[in-house]
Amino acid sequence: MTAPQHKPKVSEREARQVAEAAREQDWRKPSFAKELFLGRLRLDLIHPHPQPAPEDVERGEAFLAKMRDFCETRVDGRLIERESKIPDEVVNGLKELGALGMKIDTKYGGQGLTQVYYNKALALAGSASPAIGALLSAHQSIGVPQPLKLFGTQEQKDTFLPRCARTDISAFLLTEPDVGSDPARLATAAVPDGEDTYVLDGVKLWTTNGVVADLLVVMARVPKSEGHKGGITAFVVEADSPGVTVENRNAFMGLRGIENGVTRFHRVRVPAANRIGPEGSGLKIALTTLNTGRLSLPAMCVGSGKWCLKIAREWAGAREQWGRPVARHEAVGAKISFIAATTFALEAMTDLSAQMADENRNDIRIEAALAKLYGSEMGWLITDELVQIRGGRGFETADSLAARGERAVPAEQMLRDMRINRIFEGSTEIMHLLIAREAVDAHLSVAGDLIDPDKTLQDKAKAGVGAAGFYAKWLPKLVAGPGQLPNSYGEFGPLAQHLRYAERSARKLARSTFYAMSRWQGRMETKQGFLGRIVDIGAELFAMSAACVRAEHLRAAGENGREAVQLADTFCRQSRIRVEELFTRLWSNTDDLDRKVVDEVLAGAYTWLEEGVLDPSGDGPWIADATPGPPTRDNVHRPVR
């Protein structure tokens, strides 16, 4: 029994093929965001705003009340930050509360919350301690419960879900020291040993919850052999299995209480019954899990925005400079307006996506990805603006503020904690590429063979006929639309103008995408700057649409309607400025020059610019050795009992 060679060598094309094979190929349900990128503002897919069932509201509100009481009385966020650890009694309290099973069906002992209320609970818990929000999210959004809910056998659900609902913490293990968003190079191996066992060998990095986990979802490569399809496969692994070693608990600039580690597997025997889905389906399982799992991150960004707004309002109203509160100075007031309007839009995007996920009528893979991308980027800007509003106090720790007699506002901690969201569950750069691939899916479906160098002339000719038919019908529809009619979307009152703008911009976005594909063809995938801007425009248009729909719903329901319309109007006006800038930068940018500079940097042409400083970095390799083998360090695994 020999494990596959460590660090598989793959070409860029092979890596792309692996990623392409893992994505969902079909669109069986409508998607607002997909239509948006095709130039169609399908407002009927999101308006009227979908609403949760009364029984879901009752169950959700009851749990939120218990979660709020627990966080107020039993969670000390400053202690967690100071000691870089969530106390065991807090973790056990979360277990007793049922917080580990928020998304697990009641028949397995869970709370059975909808995605909407799960998000609200995470935002609440994360406001008490971001480390607690991360623990609960990693356990349920990407850990054992969600993959089993979607792909597990009934026996697996009966075995593991009751444990996950009440007692056992889970973790998700995909990343390796030399493998991030390029899973084609995954080195951890799961070698079949007989008919009912796999033997696991490899090293996993950044295993959130891994230090305290009882159950692990592990992605490993099964070698192709007789009777085995092979490929990247998902397994449920008991964390205390012989051969599993947590070799290090990692420390970070933020989220200091998370139990994130390096986990080594050495000849770990895993029952075939613990395999999730068939061999080779691991990446598809991971990506499908993230379709809704990603919504937990923008939910916590919404929570952060709400807190930032509260602190900005209270501080900027109390702090006076030059005879008036700093909020009355335009430079500071603009920041407060941005925080308030953007928080409203982030909540609108997240709640809308979550409710659509609960109803399961729409395909929300792009909506969830846009919410994650936009939430993490704007959430970071919101927090940074709060630190700026607080001035020197924003840079000072909460404990230091308290020690000299001032309110212990942890603004600097919030900034550190928020920074990881632009990297977690797909960095901004990777999210741009992922969303861009989905945004151009319709084009690749009809014209992909035309730009594929591996296709024959016959294939290209056939694709040309199909593409001609598609574009003959599609392109004329991009010339004019409801956005050019002054009375369109009139039921939205003062917000109608923004929806007309969104409709016009969606068609402009689609035209720009088509022109770029015609211009660059097969080289389109290398134009990451352009693709990123296309996605960012789509994100802004989705946010504007969600904000308008939410404001109109609140107005019709008599729930702070006037204020909601004002916030939506302000957000849309701010967003439109960003959209216009992005459209300009599609064609007026420094992308080509940037590539030349990068070539020079890598060639060492600018090393003279690095002179005159000292490098405080220590010695050691850039990437740690992850060669499979027995552990060389003590096991720091410490399950909470």
UniProtKB/TrEMBL annotation:
<feature type="compositionally biased region" description="Basic and acidic residues">
    <location>
        <begin position="9"/>
        <end position="26"/>
    </location>
</feature>
<dbReference type="GO" id="GO:0050660">
    <property type="term" value="F:flavin adenine dinucleotide binding"/>
</dbReference>
<feature type="domain" description="Acyl-CoA dehydrogenase/oxidase C-terminal">
    <location>
        <begin position="280"/>
        <end position="438"/>
    </location>
</feature>
<protein>
    <submittedName>
        <fullName>Putative acyl-CoA dehydrogenase FadE10</fullName>
        <ecNumber>1.3.-.-</ecNumber>
    </submittedName>
</protein>
<comment type="similarity">
    <text>Belongs to the acyl-CoA dehydrogenase family.</text>
</comment>
<dbReference type="Pfam" id="PF00441">
    <property type="entry name" value="Acyl-CoA_dh_1"/>
</dbReference>
<feature type="region of interest" description="Disordered">
    <location>
        <begin position="1"/>
        <end position="26"/>
    </location>
</feature>
<dbReference type="InterPro" id="IPR036250">
    <property type="entry name" value="AcylCo_DH-like_C"/>
</dbReference>
<keyword id="KW-0274">FAD</keyword>
<keyword id="KW-0560">Oxidoreductase</keyword>
<dbReference type="InterPro" id="IPR009075">
    <property type="entry name" value="AcylCo_DH/oxidase_C"/>
</dbReference>
<dbReference type="GO" id="GO:0033539">
    <property type="term" value="P:fatty acid beta-oxidation using acyl-CoA dehydrogenase"/>
</dbReference>
<dbReference type="GO" id="GO:0005737">
    <property type="term" value="C:cytoplasm"/>
</dbReference>
<dbReference type="InterPro" id="IPR013786">
    <property type="entry name" value="AcylCoA_DH/ox_N"/>
</dbReference>
<dbReference type="InterPro" id="IPR037069">
    <property type="entry name" value="AcylCoA_DH/ox_N_sf"/>
</dbReference>
<dbReference type="InterPro" id="IPR006091">
    <property type="entry name" value="Acyl-CoA_Oxase/DH_mid-dom"/>
</dbReference>
<dbReference type="Pfam" id="PF02770">
    <property type="entry name" value="Acyl-CoA_dh_M"/>
</dbReference>
<dbReference type="InterPro" id="IPR046373">
    <property type="entry name" value="Acyl-CoA_Oxase/DH_mid-dom_sf"/>
</dbReference>
<dbReference type="InterPro" id="IPR009100">
    <property type="entry name" value="AcylCoA_DH/oxidase_NM_dom_sf"/>
</dbReference>
<dbReference type="Pfam" id="PF02771">
    <property type="entry name" value="Acyl-CoA_dh_N"/>
</dbReference>
<feature type="domain" description="Acyl-CoA dehydrogenase/oxidase N-terminal">
    <location>
        <begin position="61"/>
        <end position="166"/>
    </location>
</feature>
<keyword id="KW-0285">Flavoprotein</keyword>
<feature type="domain" description="Acyl-CoA oxidase/dehydrogenase middle">
    <location>
        <begin position="171"/>
        <end position="268"/>
    </location>
</feature>
<dbReference type="InterPro" id="IPR050741">
    <property type="entry name" value="Acyl-CoA_dehydrogenase"/>
</dbReference>
<feature type="region of interest" description="Disordered">
    <location>
        <begin position="619"/>
        <end position="641"/>
    </location>
</feature>
<dbReference type="GO" id="GO:0003995">
    <property type="term" value="F:acyl-CoA dehydrogenase activity"/>
</dbReference>
